[in-house]
Write a structure and sequence with these properties.
Elements lengths: L1 H39 L12 H4 L10 E8 L9 E10 H4 L8 E12 L2 E15 L5 E16 L5 H4 L11 E17 L2 E8 L6 E4 L9 E13 L2 E12 L2 E13 L3 E8 L3 E10 L2 E10 L10 E9 L12
Antiparallel strand pairs: 1-2, 1-15, 2-3, 3-4, 4-5, 5-6, 6-7, 6-8, 7-9, 9-10, 10-11, 11-12, 12-13, 13-14, 14-15
């Protein structure tokens, strides 16, 4: 019996050590994962990025005329502290406001985005101006600039373990902090009724103009390339493709592709892929001047993201009727 008791005790001790090691490894993994995702979510993902071109590039301001837009994105639905994004914008074409039925050469836009991710809440206001240079009967060169006013609020009660050990952030543990940044965006694009190619830059000044509490480094410059193509294959079927590439020094490159099939100029179905991260399915309707689009996004298993789905709802309202024969969707 003594021998049996000794063997049992040794077995229990071994199991205890193994469990402690596994628990420790899991704990370290969760710290790494939470810290990595907190950093990654400083990038705003928008599955229907082709609907908010002027936000990504001021050179596209007014490309689709005078419009009002808004969307809500609930990432990893059901997970406490998961990112939530809210967006509203207005683009006004001066020629349309003056009563002309055609698009003019100048437009202004206002974009307001609010993004919550973990302990941070970021509000971004972009005021942009775009001008158009006619190159041919249908092709145009567009140039634009924007002022970017960015406020970041830190809730020190919601910091994860890794963030709490950051010397810049730990001083706000248990409290609140606010940081304000003023910067500029620039952009240019080549546009046509059937295609567009654009290049934009965010944070040209790298966030060097700021005030308030300083709990993060200067904002990195963001380079954004977009392209789209659409073709009315038949009277009842239109093919629409969009792509986007983003790069910034502190995050991996971001590449996204979307494909839509517009049926009878009324309903579209499609899907998209964010390389190395997620896939999505989308459905939308065109109801006169109003477009409504919904996206159901699900992460790829190998991306190590949370398995919860993401929901994104987009609404676009055109203030004026489009020209006859114009496709009202990118």
């Amino acid at each position: 019996m003594k021998g049996y008791t000794v063997e049992t005790s040794k077995s229990q001790s071994t199991v205890t050590i193994v469990l402690r090691v596994v628990t420790g490894l899991l704990f370290l993994y969760m710290i790494w994962f939470m810290g990595y995702e907190s950093k990654a979510q400083s990038r705003k993902y928008i599955s229907q990025f082709s609907h908010v071109q002027s936000y990504l590039n001021p050179g596209m301001t007014g490309y689709e005329g005078s419009t009002l837009r808004g969307f809500v994105r609930n990432q990893w639905a059901g997970w406490e502290g998961a990112p939530k994004t809210y967006f509203v914008s207005a683009e006004l074409d001066f020629s349309q406001l003056a009563g002309s039925g055609e698009l003019g050469k100048n437009a202004v836009g206002i974009n307001l985005l609010s993004d919550e991710y973990g302990a941070f809440r970021e509000t971004e206001l972009i005021i942009s101006y775009g001008t158009r240079i006619q190159l041919s009967k249908q092709a145009s060169l567009r140039l634009g600039a924007g002022v970017n006013i960015n406020q970041v609020r830190l809730d020190g009660n919601s910091l994860n373990t890794e963030q709490a050990n950051d010397p810049k952030v730990m001083q706000y543990l248990g409290g609140f902090a606010n940081m304000n940044v003023l910067d500029f965006n620039l952009g240019m694009s080549l546009t046509h009724p059937n295609y567009y190619v654009s290049y934009g830059v965010h944070n040209v000044n790298r966030g060097s103009i700021s005030n308030g509490d300083v709990f993060m480094d200067r904002k990195p410059m963001v380079n954004i390339v977009q392209a789209g193509y659409r073709n009315r294959v038949t009277d009842s079927f239109t093919l629409i493709m969009n792509g986007m590439y983003r790069s910034q020094e502190d995050l991996p490159d971001n590449v996204e592709l979307n494909l839509k099939f517009l049926l009878y100029d009324r309903v579209w179905i499609g899907g998209g892929h964010r390389f190395d991260y997620a896939n999505h399915a989308q459905l939308g309707m065109v109801m006169g001047r109003v477009n409504v689009g919904y996206v159901y996004e699900f992460p790829r298993q190998e991306s190590y993201l949370l398995p919860n789905p993401t929901h994104e709802l987009m609404l676009t309202f055109r203030l004026f009727e489009a020209e006859s024969g114009t496709i009202n969707l990118w």
